[in-house]
Amino acid sequence: MRPTLVNQLRILVPVKRCVDYAVKIRVNPQQTGIDTTVKHSMNPFDEIAVEEAVRLRERNKASIQSIQVVTIGPPKSSETLRTALAMGADSAIHVETAEGAEQQMPEPLGVAKALRAAVDLVIMGKQAIDDDACQTGQVLAGLLGWGQATFASRVVVSEDEKSVSVLREVDGGAEEIRVRLPAIITTDLRYVFFSKPRYASLPNIMKAKKKPIEKLTPQELSVDLTPSFQVLKVAEPPVRKGGSKVANVDELVSKLKEAGFA
């Protein structure tokens, strides 16, 4: 149930376990998807969202009731939750899927339905770096009928604690909008220029081990996470051929004609 007082906000931050951004992506031998036997870490956009939630509480200690993180994925995803807890979240929910489910990741609509719950403010990364769908936040706002502010780089709670001002990325630079609570906010990489996500310290990592993680299944949430689309085959892009130098414009035009571009 939603709390009766708006000034006691409960923030939900969805996080996702992804192949680490520094790892070179390769197709697995079965050509059913990418190789997932490599290093994984929290989705960078979600890491920004956790940081923003923690900073919001630091700036508005009397207004934020709790910060809860949630993830959907196999048992190893609990490592990502522990990282978020070490960064400052209070509790976590793990909607556990079968081992090896990375190759059949839930689609944005399924994720949004699983996240639909009674909270006042959801802060999440604008997209995951594995599928780059950039849809879950918008779909969740639509399902809940809440306002949304996407591609956020700065979030400020109003004095009356009934709305938030959000600086967001647009094609021409940035714009500031105000959204009534409850709301969905998705964070962009520009947030890093204002406040870089904190590292989880060793004492906080030890404390995170004692923080609660509630485990649920999609069935308990009455949500079907079966993808609507089936991946038939994944293949590496063709190897690019090396370029060549030309002595003058005439030779360039000649080569373009030979290649069928002119």
Automatic annotation (TrEMBL):
Going by the UniProt record, its keywords in alphabetical order are:
Electron transport, Mitochondrion, Transport
Electron transfer flavoprotein alpha/beta-subunit N-terminal domain ranges (all copies): 31-225
Q: What is the superkingdom listed in this entry's lineage?
A: Eukaryota
As to how many cofactors bind and how, the note says: Binds 1 FAD per dimer.
Which InterPro entries does the UniProt record give? Answer: ET-Flavoprotein_bsu_CS, ETF_a/b_N, ETF_b, ETF_beta_N, Rossmann-like_a/b/a_fold
Q: Name one GO cellular component term.
A: mitochondrial matrix
Its GO biological process terms?
amino acid catabolic process; fatty acid beta-oxidation using acyl-CoA dehydrogenase
Where would you find this protein in the cell?
Mitochondrion matrix
Q: Which cofactor does it need?
A: FAD; AMP
Under the heading Pfam families, the entry gives: ETF (PF01012)
A GO MF annotation of the entry reads:
electron transfer activity
What subunit structure does UniProt give?
A: Heterodimer of an alpha and a beta subunit.
Record family assignment: Belongs to the ETF beta-subunit/FixA family.
Task: Tell me the function of this protein.
Answer: The electron transfer flavoprotein serves as a specific electron acceptor for several dehydrogenases, including five acyl-CoA dehydrogenases, glutaryl-CoA and sarcosine dehydrogenase. It transfers the electrons to the main mitochondrial respiratory chain via ETF-ubiquinone oxidoreductase (ETF dehydrogenase).
Which PANTHER family does the UniProt record give? ELECTRON TRANSFER FLAVOPROTEIN BETA-SUBUNIT, ELECTRON TRANSFER FLAVOPROTEIN SUBUNIT BETA
| Protein name per UniProt | Probable electron transfer flavoprotein subunit beta
Organism of this sequence: Hydnum rufescens UP504
